[in-house]
Fold these 4 entries.
Entry 1:
Amino acid sequence: MTRTHAVPEVTDADFAEEVLAAEGPVLVKFTADWCAPCRQLAPVLSEIAAEESGRLKVVQVNVDSSPGTPAAYGVLATPTLMVFRAGEPVRQLVGARAKRRLLAEIADVLPARP
């Protein structure tokens, strides 16, 4: 059985604290309730959040209820995935993708396994 993990929502108000000030890398999903590919991606990110906890923090930002953060980072489409490290975006991916492909695309920005 695959472990899943609820992906917490971050808002404009707490983005700096939850993402920019985080110790390790943070994968941010910019999403919207009306976005079908975003819904397809949700279980993939839940699995990654569970399997990579300790190496990668996974959060989501709703572009409709928190429009300031997506605007600040030039997010024009949903879903957009960004990996932040030390307060800076280091990877950006647009569109839904399979778990294996997503993990391959962000592998080089994750810390080594202990």
Entry 2:
Amino acid sequence: MSTLTTRTARAARGVSAEGRSPEELRDLVSHWGAELELAPAETIIEWAAATFGDRFAITSSMGDAVLAHVAAKVVPGVDVVFLDTGYHFVETIGTRDAVGATMDVNLLSITPKLSVAEQDAEFGKDLFRTDPDACCAMRKVAPLADALARYDAWATGLRRAETHNRVIAPVIGWDAKKGKVKVSPLARWSDEQVERYIADNGVLVNPLVHDGYPSIGCAPCTRRVAPGEDPRSGRWAGTTKTECGIHT
């Protein structure tokens, strides 16, 4: 066991079933954020698993399985939370199913409280067009908050290279809205590093990535991106919206 794992495992032994208090979690962020800033992704996940035990999960939108692959190597059986919004491309659902079938993870597929039909009946058809913020709030933000309620920390595949809004994303940060530690093990990875990791390890990738969709969201709100365009320009195209609300 590494020195880092030994130190954090000692701390994890004293955690109750209810987890740590917000003050304790913020203290962990303050102490470990700088220390792990330049650490490899595997070390960051190892720290999170040793520190939070079964109160740690990772999330995946199934654009690829890079984060799940890295996590499964150091934390076999790790919880992987996927938001099934009801609007996903079939390729995204297929990637989710393939991850669950071929990787050593505990895949948790989370759905919103309302089905698409129930949402249409209550708020009007195609809310994603009339009020995309409200649609994302109900089908992404709220379900994720509910799913993460039993965890103290969650890991995301967020990378600084993706958008201008994410260039200051910390590797270990405090998510004030959720009251949890937010871990971004791939934050410093470039596009080239991601592609190299996928090639070297045979990692599952959503087929849409090779069909003009470098950033994949819900089907009604995602279009193909032309060569040379911003990779995320296909998300909520024609609107000023750039994020679903999970990372803002």
Entry 3:
Amino acid sequence: MVDIKDPENTLYLDLKDGRVTVELRPDLAPNHCARIKELAREGFYDGIVFHRVIDGFMAQSGDPSGTGFGGSGKNIDAEFSAEPHIEGSCSMARSADPNSADSQFFLCFDRAPHLDNQYTFWGQIIDGMEHVHAIKKGSPFDNGSVEDPDAIIKMQVAADVE
């Protein structure tokens, strides 16, 4: 069991193989962390699939349509930082517009330096990375598109869990 420093800034992400614990980084991305917590508390992420999963790179989720083109309907301005994208980094997905992040995010499987200073880093996995590595991978020939994808069972703020 991992030691939780700040339950209000910790997420539990329940996947098919077990619980993943994410330490939020409001020091780097306060608006994104607040929005992720708001959506988690609404149950927005519960049942949403990992629609794009590229082995050795990342697993992307947060689109209620499961297509990669949907979201919650509320964009958030970029909060870029120099924090390196390493194994277990949690960062926001976006279009070519830096201020187009909404509810979609990705979890890094490995170091991805090309994402540094380009995508909003909002958290770091501190426990359960083996469950992230177990997420069903997508087709390397179809930009990581996943047939019959795995889903987020439940995502919640640790402070809300009894």
Entry 4:
Amino acid sequence: MIDRYTRDEMGRVWSLDNQYQSWLEVEIAVDQAWADYGEIPQSDVDAIKKKAAFSSQRIAEIEAKTHHDVVAFTRDLSESLGSEKRWIHFGLTSTDVVDTAQGLRLKQANAIILQDLQKYLSQIKSMALKYKNTVMIGRTHGVQAEPTTFGLVLARYYAETQRNIDRFTRTSRAVETGKLSGAVGTFANIPMEVQDNALRQLGLSSQPVTSQVLPRDLHADYINSIALIATGIENFATEIRGLQRTEIHEVEENFAAGQKGSSAMPHKRNPIGSENVTGLARVIRGHMQTAMDDICLWHERDISHSSAERIILPDSTILIDYILDRFTNILQKLAVFPEE
């Protein structure tokens, strides 16, 4: 995602360095699990924990020759180690590391999004209580109908947000998962006990059944929950845009000192924030189709999902983080005109 819509904390989650750091954490957790299983020396694992290091630049140099990012990563790690390097990637296939490390980064992203959601929910609640008895005209088909209150309008969005939090909590936990079952998922080269031990160390759940990859319906469900959050905010933003129209003018987004509404019409005060989140919600909904398409893989594994997920998972989480933060700030500074 472009810098314009990337907040620092979420941007760090999806940085290249954090990708490699999460891969390293998986490799170390697996080696510790092997040691606990009695297969490799604890002294070698201790040496790996102390000495293992990576260089993004060096990985890029190796990948230019191998055309395989995990191979490049493991070779770079090995360059920082002594004889204990023989345990790096022991019993694993590339997707074990990539899928499990992705679960780690999604867990980091989910913690940020849940904080955003709680802040957003709290803001709606305070406004719903404040404007509980603020009478306004209700509209159906965009036409004046019967009186309602602004507090009731806000309460609808509060209830919708509660549902979105429930959905996101469920789907986010589902993608905080991993698999370490080796090539085609048969555990031929790694015991299930090693997998479950390593995943416990990482704070991830174990999938009951996998192929060489995690099942992608988990991720499709997750992206869908993010899209519903974005669409709920778009729903609310559309209401603000409608109520800010000149002929209605019951609410108005904050207009900061020095802000300009138009290069040609300086009198304009446009609901640009609500329009911005509306457009970004459309982008997230577009990722839903890709996430659904990623479910269908050939036999035990292909990588048709991989290139797509390098885009849709970072972009969806980065955008929902931005949207939630921006729209919460819009609500905090929203001008309400009861007399209108």
